[in-house]
Structures are given as structure tokens and as C-alpha cells.
Amino acid sequence: MSTQVELEHTESWKLESQYMGYTYDIKVSIPREEAPDNGFPVYYMLDGNSHFQLGRDVVKLQSRNAPKTLIAPAIVIGIGHYGSDDVVSKRRFYDFTPPAKQYVYPDRLKNADIGPHGGAEKFLSFLELELMPLVSEKYNVDQQKQVLFGHSLSGLFVLWTLFTRAELFQYYLASSPSIWWNDHEILAYAEHWCKYGQTISSEKRKLLITVGSEETFMVDDAKGLFSKLCEYSLPDLQVEHYVAPDENHASVVPTIMSRAFRMLNR
């Protein structure tokens, strides 16, 4: 009887952020094999409660045949929240939305208790100054293959990070991003970055915007952002757009995860 060697192992730890005044649930999947000379690529998965296990399994299964799947062994990091669904939902609105002088809410949210918002700058400081240095210290990371993945509100945060601190990651994966937030404010960030932010480095960044075909207005929002970015013929950004057939906001992530991760090696 043969035994199968596990391709990865998972660690779990708590990380208290001084910037956020909050403790995050961090899960890390590390390949068991020896790291390449430059280190392993690393995928930072926002909403780790929901998406870490899926991201881990995509890498674990497909890295067995990397030449065909284009997914190499990699470190996958889930950044999760603690608490009930309602507590986590309110925390997401704070962590993933940019600060603003005033907020405009769509009708579906006008009577909803979504909690405080506008904490994205502090959350980005947590990523840049607390989590990422710790990951680089603990694991063998390829500093030129760092990926940020987010869906919905955390997809909005992925876009905002690109348009404000593009040098932090090389690959940005925004799944069904909440472009609608605060009357489509992220489009102003995009336009400003397109006009004035194209001196980040000699390296090209990559952005993938995905959405499910059944996500109503979000399909048009994603297409509109993609078109705007394409208008500028940006030398520092390769942008792709994918609409997943027959998928809705709840179902789309499992269908696009593999495609999104393959972008790293295309």
C-alpha cells in the first residue's frame, strides 16, 4: 500500500494589528518542497474565512502539473475575521472601503446598519507594515510575485490598493469588485492613477477584473472600469477582464479562482 506525500502544510495564527485595533485570523499554506531560488510566489487572500481553503486547494492540486496548469507551488495566505456573520459583515465595510469626506448610499443600503466605514488606509498599513514583513521574515517569498485577491468589497479594496499603492503587489485580482461603493468613487481614483500614477517602477503590474454574467449592474460596472483603463494604453499595467457565464455574486469565486491564479505565470 503506497502512501501519498502531502504537498503542503497549513499554519494558523492570530495577528493583532496596532493600526486596526483588531486581531486577524491568519492561515498560511506552505509547499513542502524546496523553494525556488527566488522564493515562492505568495497569494494574499482577503476574506480568508471564505476564500483561503479554495485558494489553497487550487494551488495544491494544480501545482502537481505546473507546466500545463501554469500554477506553480506557492504560499497562500488567508486574512480572516472573527465573529458572527453580522459582525464580520460590518468589519468588512470598515476594512475595505476608502476614507471619504461624505458617503452616498444606494437605496438598498439606506436603512441598513452597515457599521463604520472608511478604514482602508489603516488596513493597508496593516498589510504593508505588519503582515507582509512578518510573512517575508517567516517564509521564503518571491518579492516579485506577490498577489492580492479580493471579492466584492475586498475586490474594491484590491482596486483601491492598485490605484493608491501599486508598488506593493505585482498582481491584482479583483473578483466582482464593489465599484458601486460611494457613487462609483473608485472610478475617480482610477482616472487619477491613469493620469499621474504611471511611474511606479520599470515592472509591469497585472490586473484581472472578473464578474459573473448574472451579477446585473456589476457586469456593466466591471466592463466600464476595464474600458476606462484600456483607453489610457497604460505602459505599467496589463489589464484583463473576464465574465463568467451563468454565475452570480455568490457562485462566481470558485469558477474564476483557477483562471485568476494562472495569470501569475501567463
From TrEMBL:
UniProt xrefs under Gene3D superfamilies: alpha/beta hydrolase (3.40.50.1820)
Keyword terms, alphabetized: Hydrolase
Q: Name one GO molecular function term.
A: hydrolase activity
Parts of the chain that traverse the membrane: none
Query: Which InterPro entries would you find in this protein's record?
Result: AB_hydrolase_fold (IPR029058), Esterase-like (IPR000801), Siderophore_Hydrolase_D (IPR052558)
Q: What class of enzyme is it?
A: hydrolase
Q: Does the keyword Hydrolase apply?
A: yes
Asked if the Swiss-Prot or TrEMBL record annotates the protein with the keyword Hydrolase, the reply is yes
| SUPFAM superfamilies reported in the protein's UniProt record | alpha/beta-Hydrolases
Please state the Enzyme Commission number of this protein: 3.1.-.-
Q: One Pfam family of this protein, by short name? A: Esterase
Give the record's family classification: Belongs to the esterase D family.
Name assigned to this protein: Ferri-bacillibactin esterase BesA
Q: What gene is this protein a product of?
A: besA
